[in-house]
Amino acid sequence: MTSDLVLEGISKQFAGHRAVDNLDLTVPAGSFFALLGPSGCGKTTTLRMIAGLEEPTTGTIRLGDDEITGLRPYKRPVNTVFQNYALFPHLDIFENVAFGLKRRKVKDYKPKVEEMLDLVELNDYGKRRPGQLSGGQQQRVALARALINRPQVLLLDEPLGALDLKLRRQMQLELKRIQTEVGITFVHVTHDQEEAMTMADTIAVMNGGLIEQLGSPAELYDLPATTFVANFLGQSNLIRGAIIGQADENLIVDVQGRKVLVPKARCRVTEGEVWLGIRPEKVFLAPAGTEEGDGVNQLLGAVVTDVSYVGVSTQYLAKLPWGQELTVFEQNTGARDTFRAGDAVDLHWRPAHSFLLDAAQDALAGVEDVE
Amino acid sequence: MSAVGQLSAASQTPAPPPPRSGRRLTAYLLLLPGGLWLLLFFVVPLVSLLAASLYDPNGSIEDGFSMTWSFGNFADTMADYARPFGRSLWYALLTTAFCLLLGYPLAYAIAMKAGRWKNLMLALVIAPFFTSFLIRTLSWKLLLSDNGFVVDALKWLHILGPDGRLLATTAAVVTGLTYNFLPFMVLPLYASLEKIDRRLIEAGGDLFAGPLTTFRVVTLPLSMPGVVAGTLLTFIPAAGDYINAQLLGTPKQRMIGNDIQRLFSAGAYPTAAALSVTLMAAIVVLVLIYVRRAGTDDLV
Amino acid sequence: MTRVGRFIGQHLIMVLGLIVLLYLFAPIVVVILMSFNQPKGRLSYTFDGFTWDNWANPCQPYGLCDAVSTSLRIGLLATVVATALGTLMAFAMVRHRFRGRSATNLFIFLPMASPEIVLGSSLLALFVSSGFGGRLGFWTILIAHVMFCLSFVVVTVKARLAGMDSRLEQAAMDLYANEWQTFWRVTFPLVFPGIMAAALLSFSLSFDDFIITNLNAGTTVTFPMYVWGSAQRDIPPQINVIGTAMFLLALIFVLAGEVTRRRRARS
Ligand SMILES: Nc1ncnc2c1ncn2[C@@H]1O[C@H](COP(=O)(O)OP(=O)(O)O)[C@@H](O)[C@H]1O
Ligand SMILES: [Mg+2]
Question: What reactions does this protein catalyze (chain A) (predicted)?
């Protein structure tokens, strides 16, 4: 009986600052939906508007056929796992989990609470206070406290943000398992792209109060719609070029005098200046002068400037004749020797692995700051 | 349990959440009963005190007082009572200085050095103040009396001459005042010292070497809010106190409070009120200076 | 620095601090001692002999226990009223933004920043000018006490409330608690320790007040007024019994609090 969650034209204006800007979003019933974006982009605000803790300045929120935009939080079939859990410090774990059921006057809540504590593997902790649990345990209590109400939509605000890496990985799988088991729509907010990719069916990438792109993890990674998505979800090499014509299903792009092909279906623009994007693992290095077959894009005359070995793969930086450095990942299959800094190389890739973006966008948008 | 500790603790108050529409009325309703009480029994009395200070000074309780806008009352009382007035401010200043001198090391020791004894030490600062103010002051009278051991000890050390005495001197009054208002200095100081990031002091140690320099450049400036709050909270009540002067001093140590109290009991309302208003005005000026410095959110 | 120098540097502050603590306790020692005094003359300024009599008959001096009981009654009533009104104000100040908020802050702070003699004399001026001059007593004292306790309550509760995570209340609302249930199930239990602290503070302020009370008491005698009166004549050692008892009560409170805190921290 769950239904789609639909946000239409949602905006939120804080004093002199627009946190969410005219957002349209449909979360399919029963899906694991991730809202991904850098800190401060408006994810929490969006979530709080769905929960009813913040009133949208404009727009409507619907759950199936019911409009819930102006409903008080306690009237919505929606529950939240808060960013820092917000467990009630004066109640023990059992009472924390039972809170929602008791407020709704559910009779016979005890076995339900026991069952829920079972699900999150905290049966023996019912009598403890939140302050006596570890971060991971508190996180599971917060989850249990929300899930026990069987909401139509469960909102999770960076629920794993406070956990260490190992626990985070473990909880990611756990959350995914629970979601499959209960079949409730999860809206999961995170700034960790890896987390969003492993867990979600659908990801909405948010930036500056806007949705940049929405799709499955594979779609977003394979064919980013903006430079922000290209950089924020994994890494991309963005090379400046200009469209100079077309051939069959491809556009021809001139890159510093060299012609390369990009399938039309993978192009956001059809003329003028462009960013040519290629993921680092899709670029191959070959010793300078190696012949390549037809239908492969090539850039010649590069020099390896940096080699870092990371076990499973090797990361190269290759400098092109006009000074730009491209990142190249190569699996350490052992099939051939690695290159060394100073080696002269050619770069090549398959047209179907590249994409074209509007040159008006910032090539550095969404690049993680490395101080 | 300590208002003063809370007073400074409250200065960390984050900005309140934005209001939901229609809740402004609730705010006013919540403020209404208490606000009304303060209005009726704090503001209105101050106004009637102001009015009383302008009554005809020749009236009496029996015949009643008439409002003659006698601004001359202020000049007259200042002429008559300038000395106790000045003395009050001087004693309050001395008291504040001694409280700072004694209170800073204690607050510092509790905040920085006490470790797991922090809470206990803090409680011990407050505990003596559950014994009545008057009883404590009376026991100072005993401690400082002519045949008490403090006087004996000071005579033995030749700090005090053979017929020197402590009781009924300025020293006794200031000792009593300092004692009674010390917690009002220690608690805000503690609250602001406690907030200082220990790493800053360590970093200070790295950068400036000497612990004294570190104190001067890092710790003291960071504890300034506590110093200011403590100074106000010590100076104000000390300036208006008359119990210490009465029990530990002589008429020579008379403070303005003694005169106000005496004049009120004698029914000389206009004069007493004029003195009271003058004292209040001096205090308001002090508070306003503070508010300009720190803003109202830090006050309460 | 030499090792000795460093040792002094490390511990000097603590030693100074402990000396100041001793200074704070010096008069208390005297009070406790004098509560066992058997005075020879009428002015009991010297320790003349040990006795349990004072503790056995605390009400012996005429009027002492009446005064204590008056102070207790005023203290309890003033505490209830001031705590209730002050708590409401604290909620308004922390949880709401409204026009005149910062002026209200100042308005609440001012009574704390006014010398007691000014507060007392202005109330007296009001009572006299409005024709209550002849009816000073229990009720006028109560009014005065509520007035000066109020600000301290607001400050104390406000600090507790401001330190509370407002997301807890949002979580309650998210879990189907309406405004009323949210308040009683979450907000109130969490603010309660602050309200308790405010009540305790109010009581001790009220019980101990002399300057304001003295001006507005008429013929009613509170405990501090009794002490004041007897300080002019003779000081019955029973006064020290009351003082000691109050100190011990406070000490027990403090120690019990510390012990439970430690025990809770350990488990
Ligand atoms: N109550 C508020 N008042 C004013 N600005 C706010 C408020 N809440 C959030 N903001 C601002 O809105 C923007 C989005 O915040 P948020 O939704 O919390 O981002 P995220 O969760 O993606 O990190 C931020 O710039 C933040 O400073
Ligand atoms: Mg957030």
Answer: ATP + H2O + polyamine-[polyamine-binding protein]Side 1 = ADP + phosphate + polyamineSide 2 + [polyamine-binding protein]Side 1
